[in-house]
Amino acid sequence: MGPLRGAPGRRRGSLVTRREPVVTVALDPDWASGSLVSDVRRGLGSQPRTLPPKWLYDDVGSDLFDEITRLPEYYTTERERAVLLEH
Length: 87
Description:
Elements: E1 3-5, E2 15-17, H1 29-44, H2 59-69, H3 76-86
Antiparallel strand pairs: 1-2
């Protein structure tokens, strides 16, 4: 991205440079090629279109999410289970 105008109240003519986000992809090519392609094809062919959340997290993010769901403060999983059992 290029320069942006400064925020209101800044000196006239001052510019702010915005950095592009960095995305790192670390997938085993053999595993990803089969599984990812299969999931994308299936998801794009469905209505509504879907993509499994496993493609949105790396191992660290996935482990962190698992740890969060085990905390006593995280009631969603238990509540979801209770709702499913009730209905």
